[in-house]
Amino acid sequence: MTGSTKAVKGEYGAIRQARKKQVLMTVILLSVVLAMFFGGLHYYGSNRNIFSIMAALCCLPTGWSAVNLIMLLRAGMCSEAAHQQIEKTIDEHLPADQTLTQAYDLYLTGYSKNFQLSHTAIRGKNIAALTEDDRIDPQAGEEHIRKMISGDGFEGYTIKIYTSPEKYIQRLGSLCELERGNPEREEKLRNTLLAISL
Questions:
Q1: Which end of the chain is flanked by fewer CB atoms within 10 Å, N or C?
Q2: pLDDT (tens digit, 9 = 90+) per residue, 49-65?
Q3: Helix, strand or coil for residue 195?
């Protein structure tokens, strides 16, 4: 990801860009709230005015924006070292006429736990993911993914979350060499993973 190219959800650098955008949005909304409240206070000499009411109403979207910012700040991102190794492995092992269904920087949110995935690869009936968060419970993450994708009819998948970059790179290389499954179905599964991610 270089220059001014915009990363979309699932691409490397998307979380970083989303954080910057959310910081700007939160600062703007907070500035508007403060300007209305203190502007009305200064003009009327009291907080009992229409601008105070408008400022109070604007606190709702400002609070929503701040919550989104906090979630984005908590979400982990794929490190540059891992990104380079992943791209190198794909280039070396994937046949030139094929593509790999993949996603970067997924942050799956559950009821009691969240799961940071630096990179996720889908090939046939296999889902492999790398996490760089040492606090994650890989088995709980795998079960969460299994439960969420089964709602869209994806059954019988082998799901493995790796905490070791070396082991993940080995698995990624072997996945790239497997025969590809149904491309449309793989893309639909990727979209499901994106939908359950921050």
A1: N
A2: 999 999 999 999 999 99
A3: helix
